[in-house]
Backbone:
């Protein structure tokens, strides 16, 4: 299938990861292979354009931008006539990934989320979890959702608290709840081989298999494991039984990690005859039942009731680090994943903190917090009071306070997204289709009336902001723009925020 790119037409979609190279246009040369989502984030068989067009397929495809054309290796739906980016996105959302039963907890949007990973890595334990929670409150930060990350159980597939690490798990959960925290646990769809749970799952025939009929043993980032076949009803029941036992003692929900397509060979044998892409989607579908959930990898999960985190970002200023946060978050929104978290503040790759824990870039940490504070979900892991000096930590508190100020609006937009699918954080081109903003991905609209422009470059104290025509309130002063680019300076610890006055 081949069709021409229109004059001044820009296309967004496909992969969330690496979105800084988008949008694509008539001069672009790019190949996008969606037949397997081998990225570490969300992917969709969907592209949408600023000229009111979109293309959709129920399966992945190979697409090429080149020579002013779009070439696809199979027939897909090409719909036209929706005027602009917003019109085309909303039409596609209604037709292909409607938001009909979103049950995510409001707690994700009210206060920061805290994750124990960077502080404790694989040494999760009751004493230090309680200490982490106490330090959050003692350092002037609000209680919120607290995720206990990988290492709380004895091994993968045995989803029960390690009695050695968590001797009084139920009491710990009650204590955390009494302090105002909701508690989530990290899980994955993998099972450590040669364990009781592995043998049980093998005998129940609920594991993904190789073509020879033996259980698949896949290599992932934490070693070698068997993988649960989520297309088998008995596998879902087996996992339900374990997770509901945790819910019964006070666990509020789960961080559903893993299920990356890149760890499933093409020739997997499953009960439902599903592809690796479909297996990743089944993990998402399973997670939807929990109002407290977090996902990272997805295929065709637009419209689902999921909080979706960006993949771990390195602690640097580059296009895979802090410069990726806004482009990837905006891409989440325009592909049907509005409830996004721009990774853990400072970056989620724990090795960066082990190698540089006494020499972190405090400016970068602050800028990440300023970027995240007005995005859908703000998430900490490395304890800012530990890794930052006092002046830098005061800036963190300012960004948290700014979120508190705008929290009612963020919550309102989250509820609106749950009903309509509209992004919470929106491309400038989404709200201002005539402004020539198609290539801008380092500032965004929070809804239709709040413009947010964080500083993303090292050493800068001000930045250029594309301000659409009209009157805007900035730091208590009303400024009038004819659509100009203005150099603005934010308050310490805050992004630039302009509120529309007309």
Residues:
């Amino acid at each position: 299938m081949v069709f021409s790119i229109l004059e001044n037409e820009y296309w967004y979609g496909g992969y969330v990861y690496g979105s800084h190279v988008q949008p694509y246009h008539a001069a672009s040369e790019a190949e996008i292979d969606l037949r397997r989502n081998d990225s570490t984030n969300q992917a969709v068989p969907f592209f949408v354009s600023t000229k009111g067009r979109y293309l959709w397929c129920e399966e992945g495809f190979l697409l090429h931008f080149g020579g002013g054309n779009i070439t696809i290796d199979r027939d897909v739906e090409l719909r036209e006539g929706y005027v602009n980016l917003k019109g085309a996105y909303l039409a596609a959302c209604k037709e292909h990934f409607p938001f009909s039963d979103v049950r995510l907890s409001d707690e994700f949007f009210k206060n920061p989320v805290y994750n124990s990973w960077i502080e404790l890595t694989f040494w999760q334990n009751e004493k230090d979890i309680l200490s982490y929670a106490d330090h959050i409150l003692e350092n002037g930060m609000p209680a919120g959702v607290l995720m206990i990350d990988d290492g709380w159980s004895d091994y993968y597939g045995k989803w029960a608290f390690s009695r050695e690490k968590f001797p009084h798990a139920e009491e710990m959960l009650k204590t955390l709840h009494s302090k105002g925290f909701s508690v989530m646990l990290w899980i994955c769809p993998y099972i450590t081989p040669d364990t009781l749970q592995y043998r049980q799952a093998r005998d129940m025939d609920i594991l993904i298999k190789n073509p020879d009929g033996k259980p698949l043993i896949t290599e992932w980032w934490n070693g070698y494991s068997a993988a649960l076949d989520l297309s088998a009803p008995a596998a879902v029941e087996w996992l339900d039984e374990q997770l509901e036992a945790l819910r019964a003692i006070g666990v509020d929900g789960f961080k559903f990690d893993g299920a990356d397509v890149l760890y499933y060979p093409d020739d997997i044998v499953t009960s439902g005859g599903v592809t690796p892409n479909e297996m990743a989607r089944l993990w998402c579908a399973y997670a939807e039942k929990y109002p407290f959930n977090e996902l990272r990898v997805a295929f065709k999960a637009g419209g689902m009731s999921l909080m979706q985190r960006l993949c771990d970002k390195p602690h640097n200023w580059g296009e895979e680090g802090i410069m990726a946060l806004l482009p990837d978050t905006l891409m989440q929104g325009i592909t049907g994943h509005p409830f996004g978290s721009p990774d853990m503040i400072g970056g989620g790759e724990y090795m960066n903190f082990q190698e540089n824990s006494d020499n972190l870039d405090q400016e970068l940490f602050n800028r990440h917090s300023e970027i995240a504070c007005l995005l859908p979900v703000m998430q900490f892991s490395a304890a800012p009071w530990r890794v930052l000096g006092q002046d830098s930590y005061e800036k963190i508190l300012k960004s948290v306070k700014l979120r508190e100020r705008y929290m009612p609006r963020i919550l309102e937009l989250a509820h609106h997204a749950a009903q309509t699918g509209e992004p919470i954080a929106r491309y400038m081109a989404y709200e201002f289709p005539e402004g020539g903003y198609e290539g801008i991905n380092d500032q965004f609209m929070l809804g239709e009336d709040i413009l947010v422009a964080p500083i993303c470059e090292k050493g800068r104290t001000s930045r250029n902001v594309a301000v659409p025509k009209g009157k805007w309130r900035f730091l208590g002063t009303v400024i009038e723009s004819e659509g100009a680019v203005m150099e603005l300076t934010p308050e310490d610890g805050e992004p630039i925020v302009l509120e529309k006055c007309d």
User: Anything to note?
Assistant: The chain has a mean pLDDT of 98.
